Amino acid sequence: MAEQVADGPRRGRKPTPRTWVWVLVGVLLAGAAVTAVWWKPWQQSVRLPQSACWGTLGPDDYRVLAGRDGTATLRTDYTISGPYPGDNPNRECFLVWNDGRKAMLDVRIVSSPDASEVEAFGGRPATSVDFGADGRGWISSGDGPVGVYLYLTCDYRQVASKRETADPGFAIRAATNPALSAAPIGEVRQALVGITLKLAKGVARQMPCANSPRLVDRPPQL
């Protein structure tokens, strides 16, 4: 009889420290599950235009510039198809994040007599980027907005009534505010280099540039 009592369940046994550890783990896991159901991080979404900047860019090009959850709105002024300058010498394209005042992507294209203005980079420190024999480029250094400038040598068709001599190329600038992006700054900078190269190729094709500008096939790695 004593053996049966000894082998039976011990009703008055106190929880050991190890038992309390497993109880605490269970509580934490349950709390995390409840939080996940309430927050639903997987339902966060990014809504991007399917095409941007005169059809030269797609979502995969500018997705890195977007935040974790929101909508990018597109605004494009004028066209990059020749003859140039047409209605306005400045071509502009903006992707605005969540209807704010800060542009997720800010693109400006204007004719330029040489690369000096682009090379000056507004007085900001910059590093040169090799876009090819007909694409001299620079990317901003340091903190603040990230900008990429490219001077494209382009033999384009000029509007006769505007000027007697056409500028020999275009200054192409693409900029972004990295604070809007959920990606590391290195990925933002690399994405902007790829965007600028695609813009230059779009100008060369749509303007068009009779000299068939020599540009690299793939974005240079920073």
From TrEMBL:
Spans through the membrane: 20-39
Keywords annotated in UniProt: Membrane, Transmembrane, Transmembrane helix
The keyword Membrane is assigned to this record: yes
Superkingdom: Bacteria
Protein name: Uncharacterized protein
Origin organism lineage: Bacteria, Bacillati, Actinomycetota, Actinomycetes, Kitasatosporales
